[in-house]
């Protein structure tokens, strides 16, 4: 009679308080939830909750199903995690939602592999939809991201902070300014990675709040090509400091701060149950240490 989908739906409905909120958080449609509820009500021969009540008020039958869900679902999750431990203990898969992260991530992974040679380390270079859901499903183990979500099933381990800056050719007109203002980009071609601008820090934190747009957005596949285009005068770009270091040292490009400065933070997002694992803690510490050493060497 009862299926796991019914338990998850009732638990979600009790947790989120409405069908629409439940659908959004469980990543299924409202019509699918309504269908499941009606199907279960037919099976048990009575309503699960009272219609047109805010917040939702559950019937006695509804409370019984919710109690069952709160008992059974955690047990199922625990068993699934145990079943997956053997595979997860030999595999370490990282994913990123930051194109320029390769510059610092690859040396860190190399150091990590020397210490944890027994692990099969893999790096996903693709930028998938719903990466956090894939993390919870066990498809990846660490997600490198600058966006934090407050939720109980994920934990965000801080790695380091960085400054976003405007990158331009060494003879660009804007090199005459100490600071770049949003309106300065109104006549510029802004080179960026092939993602929606609404996912970009330069748009969300710099341009959009000031109702500004560049003359043109031009998408470039990778950092190396992007920097070569910047140095050749084909446009400007907003990049983290680590991504431009080699070109800047060769005086092929120049950098300037954006407004009063845009500081961002990178995190290693992991499942809550994995946050204390030795190899994950080691990866975080190696990343922090390598970034601190690189920062110190630049000062010297």
Q: Nearest-angstrom radius of gyration? A: 24 Å
Supply the CATH architecture of the largest domain: 3-Layer(aba) Sandwich
Instruction: Give the low-pLDDT segments.
Output: none
CATH H-level superfamily of the largest domain: Periplasmic binding protein-like II
The coarse silhouette is elongated
Structural class: alpha/beta
How many domains is the backbone divided into?
A: 3
Beta-strand content estimate: 15-25%
Q: Strand sequence of the main sheet, in spatial order?
A: 4-3-5-10-6-9-7-8
CATH topology of the largest domain: D-Maltodextrin-Binding Protein, domain 2
Task: Explain what this protein looks like in three dimensions.
By secondary structure, the chain is of the alpha/beta class. The protein folds into three domains: about 5-85, Arc Repressor Mutant, subunit A, CATH 1.10.10; about 90-160 and about 265-300, D-Maltodextrin-Binding Protein, domain 2 (3-Layer(aba) Sandwich), CATH 3.40.190.10; about 165-265, D-Maltodextrin-Binding Protein, domain 2. It has ten helices and ten strands. The protein has helices spanning about 5-15, 20-25, 30-45, 60-90, 100-115, 130-135, 200-205, 225-230, 245-250, 280-300, and strands at about 50, 55-60, 90-95, 120-125, 140-145, 155-170, 190, 215-220, 235-240, 255-270. The strands form two sheets. The protein has an eight-stranded mixed β-sheet. Strands 1-2 form a two-stranded antiparallel sheet. A hairpin with a 6-residue loop joins strand 1 and strand 2. Helix 1 packs across helix 2 (about 20-25). The longest helix has 29 residues, at about 60-90. The chain is elongated and about 75 Å long. The relative contact order is 0.13. The model has no long low-confidence stretch (mean pLDDT about 85).
């Amino acid at each position: 009679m009862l299926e796991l989908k019914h338990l998850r739906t009732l638990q979600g409905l009790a947790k989120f308080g409405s069908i629409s909120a439940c659908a959004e958080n469980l990543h299924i449609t409202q019509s699918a939830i309504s269908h499941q509820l009606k199907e279960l009500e037919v099976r048990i021969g009575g309503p699960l909750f009272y219609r047109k009540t805010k917040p939702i008020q559950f019937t006695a039958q509804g409370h019984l199903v919710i109690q069952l869900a709160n008992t059974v679902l955690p047990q199922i999750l625990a068993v699934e995690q145990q079943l997956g431990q053997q595979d997860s203990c030999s595999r370490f898969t990282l994913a990123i939602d930051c194109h320029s992260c390769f510059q610092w991530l690859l040396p860190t992974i190399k150091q990590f592999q020397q210490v944890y040679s027994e692990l099969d380390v893999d790096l996903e270079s693709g930028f998938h939809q719903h990466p956090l859901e894939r993390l919870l499903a066990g498809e990846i183990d660490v997600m490198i991201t600058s966006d934090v979500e407050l939720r109980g099933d994920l934990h965000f381990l801080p790695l380091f902070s960085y400054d976003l800056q405007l990158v331009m050719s060494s003879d660009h007109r804007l090199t005459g300014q100490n600071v770049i203002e949003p309106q300065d980009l109104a006549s510029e071609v802004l080179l960026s990675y092939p993602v929606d601008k609404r996912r970009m820090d330069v748009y969300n934190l710099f341009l959009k709040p000031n109702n500004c747009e560049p003359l043109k957005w031009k998408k470039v596949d990778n950092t190396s090509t992007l920097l070569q285009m910047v140095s050749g005068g084909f446009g400007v770009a907003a990049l983290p400091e680590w991504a431009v270091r080699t070109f800047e040292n060769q005086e092929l490009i120049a950098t300037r701060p954006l407004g009063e400065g845009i500081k961002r933070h990178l995190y290693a997002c992991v499942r809550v149950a994995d946050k204390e694992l030795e190899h994950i803690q080691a990866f975080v510490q190696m990343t922090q240490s390598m970034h601190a050493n690189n920062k110190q060497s630049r000062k010297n």
